[in-house]
Hints:
The chain is mainly alpha-helical.
Amino acid sequence: MLIHPQFDPIALQIGPLAVRWYGLMYLAAFVLFMLLGHYRARRQAAQGWKTSDVDDMLLYGILGVVLGGRIGYCLFYKPGYYLANPLEVFAVWQGGMSFHGGLLGVIFAMWLYARRSP
Length: 118
C-alpha cells in the first residue's frame, strides 16, 4: 500500500483567489519552454527556426494541455456526471484536470501546429 504525503494544494491565497501548486508547475513549464525555445531558435536560425515559431507553438501547447486536460478529466473520471450536467464542464474553478487528456491535447495541438505552419 502506498502512502502519499498530505499537503495543502494551495500554494498562495489572497482573499478568494487561490494559486495552487499544479498551476505554478504549469507556469514554470511554460516559462522554461519559452526560454529554452527562444534560445534554441536563435542558435538554429540557419535551419529556419524563428522565435515567433516558438511563441506560436507555445500558444498551441497551452491550449492543448488546458483544453485536453479538462476534457480528459470530464471523459475519463466523471463522464456520467458531465453528461447529466454539461455546463459544469466550464466550471474550471472547481478543479479537475487529467494528465492523460492533457497529453492527448498537446499531441493533437502539435499535430495541428505542424499542419498549419509552413
